[in-house]
Please model this.
Amino acid sequence: LCVSGLEMSARAASEPTVVVILIDGLPAVALENAQTPTFDRLKRDGVWSDSLVPVFPSVSHSNWSSLSTGCWPERHGIVSNQFEIDGVATDFETITDADSLLDCEPIHVVAENHGIPSAALGVAGATSATRGDLARTTAPYFDTWSSILDATRAEQIVEQLQRTDAYRPRLISAYFNGPD
Model:
């Protein structure tokens, strides 16, 4: 976990924190008949979508890049889980690097540009090979499917939420890939 630029305004201390959770391979319909008290509470007390439409092609990296940026694949450039850029095969670092997202800015970059402190935990565009960390708090994408790593990601969210108001991000985006 990398934390930088923790100075925040007094105004931010009274603002809520929004947590955006991206769970790869878990359609909302899968939760309908399962006992999920935490998700039930999030649905009741937060914001929930039962009808997200996947982008085409409907693969992980294209979709979570679109969710992170608000752009379609033809604009952000992530069109597959594996592809080539200038004849060189990509890897997960290339796909998650903000410089790969062409002209699309991830939501945490937009927030930071407007003075809203953000945490980007394993999401597309958390870092840039040329510009470094693009949110005040970043954590790497986990290139494996493991419930242990998803538990670590959950701990990272809780850690951010437990920070004092003066240091807590107001936007936390977190990616989980265990269910996929």
In short: The beta strands are 2-3, 18-23, 84-85, 88-89, 118-121, 127-128, 132-133, 137-139, 171-176. The radius of gyration is 16 Å. Confidence is low (pLDDT under 50) at residues 2-12. The chain has six helices and nine strands.
